[in-house]
Amino acid sequence: MSSNAAKSSFGQTPHFITDIKLQELEKQRLAYQAHAKVLEQAKTLGENGDILEKVEVLAKAVTSWTGSGTLDYQQTVGGKLQLKNLEFWLLQAKNDPSFSRQIAEGWAQTLEEHIRHTTMRFDSAKLFGNLFNEWLTSGDSVALRYQAVPEDVEGDVSEVCESDAASAAFVEVGRKELYEQKEKFTSIVFDDYPVDTAALTAYLEDLFSSDEAAKALDNLRKDLKNFAYYFQRRPVTSREVLGSIKSLLASGLMDEEKRTTLKAFQENPTVVQEVASVLTMRLASLESWAWPKEGPPQV
């Protein structure tokens, strides 16, 4: 395997990362458009005089969003509305006849402005992405010019393209155990395995039939739910990406080209940070994730 192939893989990575980020942003933009329809429901509630219910609906919409720009109960909306205290204020407002309606209307306005602002952020990101892609494909991009005619390549451009095409058509044969493990993994994940679901269900029900076991199972479910909630909202760090790269390099499951590319990643903090950003976006949109139409990527 030549070093040129590894350099090519590394050079394509920034473009790949950009494409992924723009795809994820578009998915989140469309998802948030649907999410922001709660404004129509809130408007109806406000017109009917249900101001407190309007605030509850808007607050739920703000805190339930798990994509880019997500907020939790520890954060403040609009610099003035603290979400962790809003629930108690609403409870007081429902039970205190002297509670000012004007205050509740201020809460609703703050939450509505946050939702509209987030919608505008996604629209602006889409506009920037379109402009960026247009710039990349216009021929004005230095990166594209470099890819089209590398500085260290001599000769006619058509010869370079033919050489690249020949290289792309070449498939390097990796180690035997790599293919064996890949084939085994594919069979485990994608091949149907007959399972007696009725017998399995009966076994599990009997296993957790006692009060103590049922309580332990309930606690486990709550712990997993809480862990998943915060894990999905926690950003992936560069340190975690570097740790994953080290584990992949130590596993010996990748061919030499990919190992060389990963080593190049290790030495480039910017790329590591971008990979972490993409993983964070993918994790945030996990509920809308699906296999690509062309199938899983070949490793």
TrEMBL record:
Reading the lineage from the top rank, the first entry is: Eukaryota
What's the protein name?
A: Uncharacterized protein
